TrEMBL record:
Signal peptide interval: none
Gene3D superfamilies, A to Z: NAD(P)-binding Rossmann-like Domain
Family: Belongs to the short-chain dehydrogenases/reductases (SDR) family.
GO MF terms, alphabetically ordered: oxidoreductase activity, acting on the CH-OH group of donors, NAD or NADP as acceptor
Pfam families per UniProt: adh_short
Record-annotated membrane-spanning stretches: none
Stretches assigned to the Ketoreductase domain: 6-190
Alphabetical UniProt keywords: Oxidoreductase
This protein's name: Oxidoreductase
Organism: Effusibacillus lacus
PANTHER family: DEHYDROGENASE/REDUCTASE SDR FAMILY MEMBER 7B, DEHYDROGENASE_REDUCTASE SDR FAMILY MEMBER 7B
Coiled-coil positions: none
Cellular component GO terms, alphabetical: membrane
Length: 260
């Protein structure tokens, strides 16, 4: 996809990966619609993009509320007339052992990370079907492939995102719409204001990436129509090893985390 003048809607855009992704698409000449709960942060980002010569619409949204998601979609369509790219990025994590996890945290993660994404897809993709083109990017996680100790609740939401994405990709393929999952490892963002960074082994923390790297991967995935992308890409062989030797991989992962 040539991104010049394309309309890109990004959820979870008030910080971290969403913020950097908006800047990356704006740099390619796309027209932005940014959405999140924090209206002040959205206005700050929209102002920055506008100052740099871009076009950006800030739309507050709560992805756990169907009416809020429908209202967001309606405002974007009224302003731009279309949506070419939907980036489902809203999400958060709380890490705790499964037997000790707070059920309210488990439910909220599923509401935001999974059902919020479904709400956005159901609100936006029908308009892409009428356009006969579009691209959906679902920000999942390496945790959607590897459920490490204390990450069970969060991983469950990302396993769900990956499964939904695989089904959706085939359901709408013949309508000219692409679906991508972007799977980051640990990223240095406000995500860890809620998630416990200390639950990740120190050696893994050394490989933490910056959000702009994920943003560049998202843009590349849309431009080159890549169905699945890992950040960093060097993690892909590890996932292949898991597929070939799941028991050995699980034992190694468990030991790795116990020695964190």
């Amino acid at each position: 996809m040539n991104l010049k003048e394309r309309v890109v809607l990004i959820t979870g855009a008030s910080s971290g990966i969403g913020w950097e992704t908006a800047l990356a698409f704006a740099a390619r000449g796309a027209r932005l619609a940014i959405a999140a709960r924090s209206e002040s942060k959205l206005e700050e980002l929209a102002g920055r993009i506008s100052k740099e010569g871009g076009e950006c619409l800030a739309v507050p949204v709560d992805v756990t509320d169907s009416e809020s998601v429908k209202s967001m979609t309606r405002k974007v369509l009224e302003h731009y007339g279309r949506v070419d790219v939907l980036v489902n990025n809203a999400g958060f994590g709380v890490f705790a052992p499964v037997l000790e996890a707070d059920m309210s945290d488990m439910k909220e993660m599923m509401e935001v990370n999974y059902f919020g994404l479904v709400r956005c897809i159901q609100a936006v993709v029908p308009h892409m079907l009428r356009q006969k083109m579009g691209h959906v990017v679902n920000v999942a996680s390496m945790a959607g492939f590897v459920a490490a100790p204390t990450h069970g609740g969060y991983s469950a939401t990302k396993f769900a995102v990956i499964g939904l994405s695989e089904a959706l990709r085939e359901e709408i393929r013949d309508h000219g719409i692409k679906v991508t999952t972007v799977n980051p490892g640990p990223i240095d963002t406000p995500f860890f204001e809620k998630a416990d960074l200390n639950s990740i082994p120190k050696i893994a923390q050394r490989f933490m990436r910056k959000p702009d790297e994920v943003a560049r991967a998202i843009v590349r995935a849309v431009e080159e129509e890549i169905p699945e992308i890992m950040v960093p890409g060097s993690m892909a062989p590890l996932l292949k090893f898991k597929a070939l030797m799941p028991t050995l991989f699980a034992r190694g992962t468990g030991r790795f985390y116990r020695k964190k």
